[in-house]
Structures are given as C-alpha cells and as structure tokens.
Write a structure and sequence with these properties.
By secondary structure, this protein is an alpha/beta fold. The chain has helices at 26-37, 52-58, 66-71, 85-92, 108-111, 132-140, 159-169, 182-195, 200-214, 219-228, 230-248, 251-264, 267-282, 284-294, 298-308, 311-319, and strands at residues 3-4, 18-22, 41-45, 62-64, 75-78, 101-104, 122-128, 147-153, 177-179. The chain has two domains: 3-180, NAD(P)-binding Rossmann-like Domain (Rossmann fold), CATH 3.40.50.720; 192-319, no CATH class. The protein has 16 helices and nine strands. The chain has a nine-stranded mixed beta sheet, with helices on both faces. Keywords: Amino-acid biosynthesis, Branched-chain amino acid biosynthesis, Isomerase, Magnesium, Metal-binding, Oxidoreductase. Mg(2+) 1 binds at residues 189, 193.
Length: 323
C-alpha cells in the first residue's frame, strides 16, 4: 500500500473551482472550513429553516438552498446521513450539469445502490478517518488526518486528480492519503461500527461495570475501573501502538491482559464477528438502516432513552457532575 503525501498531490484540479458542501453537521462544517482556509471557493447548501444556517453564516460562509448551491458548483459534496442521500440526490440531480462531480465521505449509498449517479458525472469519495471535530482541530494545528479516496465513476478522466486535490485541501495530505474503493471503505467502516469500536467496546464496558456492581463493588469505583480507564488505553495505543501500549503498563496489568483477553475474545466472538461482516456485505444491514429511517428511528430513540436512564450514567454524573 502506498501512502500519498501532500507534496505528491497537484492542487491545480481544484484551483478556481467552487465546492458546494451539502449538509453542515460534524463532517460538513469541518470540511467547509478547512477548504475555505485552504483558499477554495465554498458555498454551503442548507434548506430554509435549518438550525445549521446561523452557524454557517457566523463561520463566514455563504449559505443558499441546496439546489442553488450545486447548480453553480464544480464539485458537490453530499454530507448528509446515508439514509437521506437517495432523496437528496433525486432533488439535486436536475441541477447537476454534465461533467460536474459529486462526492461522498462514506461509500454506503453508492456501493449498495441506494442511489445511481448519472453516467455523465464524476463520482468521488474522500473519507477522513475520524470525526469532523478532529479533522478541523488537526488542520488548525498544522497537522492532518489520514483519509481514504476512491473513484466510482470517472466521466471526465480527471476524477482521481480532483479527489486527491480535495483531500489535500482538507489537510489530509499532511498525514497521508490511501487509495481505496467505495466497497472497501463502507464494508470496513460498517463492520467496525458494529463489531469493534462503537458496538462491542461500549457493551464490554457496560458488562464489566455490571459484573463488578453485582459482586458488591460500588458503582462509582466500577465506573472508574471499567469505563474511565478506556481513555488511557486509547491514548497509549494512539501514541505507541498495541505492542507499545502493553510495554507501557505494569507487569500485573500486562499478565492480567494476557490471561483474560483470550478468555473473552474466543472463537465464538470471532465467529459472531464474521457473521456481522457477512450481514454488512450482503446489504442486510443497509436494509435495516432504511427500515429504521422509515420508523422515524424508533429503535434508536428507545435505546438512547434507556442509556440516559441507566444506573451507569447516574454513577458517571455523581463522579463528574459538570461533565
């Protein structure tokens, strides 16, 4: 795998071009501001009444209706939630002239066929590998965030160069850019969200907390041990890698991890991870996502309500009342 660096990328494909950022959430705001600060002409597309409009204007950006934004743009980045992209694309397509480019920061909608871009459009993906807040703060510190780039459709013959120039303008070339595909990005990302960082890890924290509390440990001490220490682990891995993290902790902790880890993450866990990966690749999860949207996110709203009311969250509030 070759990592593409900033000095290898020609900025010219984006020079003098206008970029429309459709959506001004976590990624949309960060990308718009980084582009602006890199000298790119940026316009934000938001529907009338959107709560994001005042913030975008306070940030010094021009805000217009989404159709108006893409009509005058050379590249339209569609940065709204995946499940809303099909309707958004249908709305915007008549305003997209032949030869223009559309971009995404996640491959799901295109890879799984939730929308089918017109064949006369360039279709790109520039996917920073982290939240927008970090993308922005790293840029302001003169650093960058690793990003994946991919081309799904190259109508102009210049799509790859445009994607790389965009990633450079985000500051991602400072850290490195990896060429990928819509499939690879979305499958790996969806798998991680379910089976590792956002799915399995929080549930392991809760299970550990519950186990200690059931054994008579106070809720606050259990929280400090099973939840709060995660930030220490993440920091060590970020700074030193997995091997360096293990070398940095005490012999007691290292031996406990060596004995305990394999008892938790056994072949059964790996088999269930493989099943999750299969459901991602088959499109079954994408179907679930659309059903959840159609139910007005009933399952997600119920889970959020339960999480907020949990004893674990009450313990956290007692420990960190201003957090």
């Amino acid at each position: 795998m070759d990592m593409i660096r900033e000095d290898q990328i020609d900025a010219a494909p984006l020079s003098g071009k206008r970029v429309a950022i459709i959506g001004y959430g976590n990624q949309g705001r960060a990308q718009a501001l980084n582009l602006r600060d890199s000298g790119i002409d940026v316009v934000v597309g938001q529907r009338a009444g959107s709560a994001a409009i005042p913030r975008a204007r306070e940030d010094g950006l021009m805000v217009v209706a989404p159709v108006e934004a893409v009509a005058d743009a050379d590249l339209a980045m569609l940065l709204v939630p995946d499940e809303h992209l099909p309707a958004l694309y249908r709305e915007l397509e008549p305003a997209l002239s032949p030869g223009r480019a559309i971009g995404f920061s996640h491959g799901l909608a295109v890879h799984f066929g939730l929308l089918t871009p017109r064949p006369d459009l360039d279709v790109l993906m520039i996917a920073p590998k982290g939240p927008g807040t970090a993308l922005r703060s790293l840029y302001r510190d003169g650093k960058g965030m690793i990003a994946l780039v991919a081309v799904h459709q190259d109508a102009s013959g210049r799509a790859r160069a445009l994607a790389l120039a965009y990633a450079k303008a985000l500051g991602c070339g400072r850290a490195g850019i990896i060429e990928s595909s819509f499939e690879e990005e979305c499958v790996s990302d969806l798998f991680n969200e379910q089976a590792v960082v956002w799915g399995a890890v929080p549930d392991i924290l809760v299970a550990g907390w519950q186990t200690l509390v059931a054994a008579g440990i106070s809720e606050e001490v259990a929280y400090l041990e099973c939840v709060s220490e995660l930030k220490l682990l993440a920091g060590l891995i970020e700074d030193r890698g997995l091997a360096g993290m293990r070398e940095a902790i005490s012999n007691t902790a290292e031996l406990g991890a060596a004995l305990g880890g394999p008892r938790i993450v056994d072949e059964g866990v790996r088999e269930r991870m493989a099943a999750i990966l299969a459901s991602v690749r088959s499109g079954a999860f994408t179907d679930e996502l659309q059903r959840e949207r159609d139910s007005d996110y009933a399952r997600l709203r119920e889970r959020r309500k339960g999480d907020r009311a949990s004893p674990l969250e009450a313990a956290r509030t007692r420990l960190f009342p201003s957090g």
